[in-house]
# Entry
Amino acid sequence: MFDTEIKSLKSLNDYLVKLVENRLWLKVIIALFLGVGFGLLLSPQNGLISKETADVAGNWLALPGVLFLKLVQMIMIPLIVASIITGIASNDKENLKKLGGGVLLYFLGTTIVSVSIGTIISQLFNPGRFLHQQALSEHNDITSANSEDTELSFGLENIPDAISNLLPENPLASMVSGEMLSIVIFTIIIGVAVLSLENTLLRPVKLLLSAIQEVCMTVVKWSMLLVPIAVFGLMAQLTSSVGLSSLSGLTYYVGVVLFGLLLLVIFYLCLVALLGKSNPFQFLKKIKDVQLLAFSTTSSAAVMPLSLQTAEEELEVDKTISNFIIPIGATVNMDGTALYQTITTLFIAQAYGLEMSLLNIIVVIVTIVAASIGTPAIPGGGVVILASVLSSVGIPSEGIIIIIGVERLLGMFRTAVNVTGDLTACVVFNRFYGITEKTNIKLSSKQ
# Structure
């Protein structure tokens, strides 16, 4: 009987191994639930262990996740540089003019749509009314303690400096400090300049950049082995430190943000169907690994290598298009973050009882569209920009304290939406500028 039990356990184990084999999304989902469950056990609210012990255990559990993020961030800059220049250099100049201008207009358009969705549902559902009194009392308690931290601002007078700072004086310094937007702009300029090279010089440049890309993707394949363990640890740390009770008071606000993100995803699926001429449900099925990894790591930069691989292998997007769109999109196309910042700004204003006129709301929209372009593609990057948005429109930036308990949770969802937006752009532009169209043009010209 004992042998029978061992055999049945072994067969169950073999079945489970086969079930998750080559299914990253399933491994991530299992790790998510196990991490949440283990984190709840470790939570000091249960009284099983002290807060100090829970913090130490949480730090150790998060170590694989931290290592994964560091490993990917380590090769992020060479991968971005190689991908963008390769994407530009593989296009002819006329095609690049159309693609580059179209991509920027597309990103701007989808950002405006996401901010508009956030504004409309904030005005319809008015999520801040439930926390009005709580926010005022918390504001009185923390204003003096945090007054020195509220000096961030982003107004019209800052725009000229912001534009000039986009061009790095020292590209190497920008790479060291991780100023991703400056790096992307520098790389685009270099990529366009590379197009002017003669074929004899252009060929070795392309070979070198392709080699760098392959090396980076090899490192990414190694790092992907850590993903399930990383997700388990990060979720366990998050749940043990935040708990579930602290989320209950902000449930309505969280629901409004998630509803807005859902509407934005539906908008993306319409773009995939109407402009990309693809099945939106098949599209979702093919990108689920990227979405789950983005959800787990809350960093669109960290999943950029997997986004590139998914676009090329699963969505069959022309490599020149994915190499051009995804690195830029991971830096400037933050639609989920823009929607979150819009709702949160209006939510905090409502919580403090501040009346927002139509002109105030327009200022908020313009500021968020401008600020979302520079949002760091890292965990917590949205909060950094949100503080400047609040200050610029006269809302106490200490109000961020109100939502800090659920920020990480919402960060997971909005990051998944951000990468969905980048992959949607790939499908849309592949429809108009993909390899199939270019091949047909070449064939017809030969005939």
